[in-house]
Amino acid sequence: MGESRTELVAWVNELLQLNYTKIEQCGTGGAYCQIVDSIYGDVPMARVKMNAKHEYEFVANFKVLQNVFRAKKIEKPIPVEKLVKCKMQDNLEFMQWMKRFWDSNYGGGGYDAVGRRRGAPTDTPATIAPLASASARTGGLSVAGSARSGGRTPISGHRAASTQPNEAVQALQAQLREMSGHLEGLEKERDFYFAKLRDIEILAQQQMEVLESEGKDDPVLREIQKILYSTEDGFEVPEQAVDEEETF
To answer: pLDDT tens across 141-155, in order?
Structure first.
């Protein structure tokens, strides 16, 4: 319950014989569909595109998942519009729920993930990564700028003006490097506190199990659990995420 993203990615890879490296990659919808298939064995995997690379393909995968949820009477809303953006927090929360659902309903035994998808390609899907994309774009500008400067030497009167685009690109690249380092620090800090909350959750759960086995109860522990779990269902995407450029 409440596994970290690293634990969840490892579990998905082992169960489905995939090679995902980030929880965001589950936003393509294919992994969610096949996790449910491992439980029921009747998800139309032929309609699921495991190597989807475009948002419209992600949406099509989630439509398959929604149909299965409806057929199995699984009363869990699927926030498709958020998941297909391949953001870490949204997919982490939904995968945590999916793992709990799987733990409660999986019948055991082996699951032939490759056979169920009939050997369909499962190339690691492209995910939305603003920093990487911006870096690639600025890299393209840098090459273009160097190509122009590598031609005939401009008249001295225009030399200063011709170097301005390169200076602007270099400034942007420096800003990107700074932002990337800042983001890495924030991720480490987030993971640090998440690990602490995870330890508290495990400790509270173990103590509650001991009390329940003895026919006792602890209102304080129940309140602690209520606080821990309310953050999952009550989480809202930061307002700044709404302003981000949507993909195709």
So the answer is: 443 444 444 444 444
